[in-house]
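Lab notebook page, bench 4
Experiment: in silico fold of construct C2
Operator: M.H.
Input chain length: 299 residues
Purpose: comparison with the prior construct
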Amino acid sequence: MAATVIDGKAFAADVRGQVGEHVTRLKTDHGITPGLAVVLVGADPASEVYVAAKHKQTVEVGMNSFEHRLPADVSEEVLFDLIDKLNADDSVHGILCQFPVPDHLDERAVVARIDPSKDVDGLSVVNAGLLASGETGLVSCTPLGCLMLLRDQIGNMSGKNAVVIGRSNLFGKPMAQLLLQENCTVTIAHSRTSNLAEVCARADILVAAVGRAEMVQADWVKPGAVVIDVGITRTPHPDKPGKSKLLGDVDYAQVSAVAGAITPVPGGVGPMTIACLLANTITACCRANGLAEPEGLTA
């Protein structure tokens, strides 16, 4: 039997709908409009596309969108002065700096400069530490999106064996922490894991995030497992010269014949990232104003 296709695009639309409803209630009941500030340094083409998408979706759900564009040669002092002003601005509830930034800027220092309570990307050491210790913080958007998809697909994950392939600070580690909080038994696998295929084949939940196109094959997957494909690699299209094709870390055609459920690439995890950015902004806004957090939109 073919795997159930987990439609991240549709789920993300539902999340945005919930966010929009919360925004309306905040405006109506409390006179508060959540605000998201995005800082773009330079003119990286991919970053331009992402920032435009974030602005569009922020406005569509009724939030205030504040864009700050700085030249590629901006000094650290000027960038940090802007972040300090956004930290102090009560109308701004979420701040993110679009990465990558030019080489003369230190991304870690940029993240560290953002107030952790407004770090809606969930990248700061403070928020990572809060997650690891089981305390309340803001969670990195892509892992949060994957958690939402898994909750919707599986429901109660307690006791499930979960394997996360990838140990990055951006995704692998926070994803593992979120699964631990769901009472899964979690293994973090990576390029130096012995018998990687065998380790993966024991998983009820398999999350692949390594950036190697179609690395995960059918014999890596336990029959009926839920497979979340976070990887994305752009390769030349085999049938369309000059065009590219997006591939995930999972051999979708083969694995979908074995798995119980699977996310496609594109249309799976990707759309959830911006949706969860908006959800995090709502959460940050509610916390800043001492209001109840939105149910279903947090970890």
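Observations: The first helix runs from residue 8 to 30. Residues 8 and 149 are 7 Å apart (CA to CA).
Next step: discuss at group meeting.
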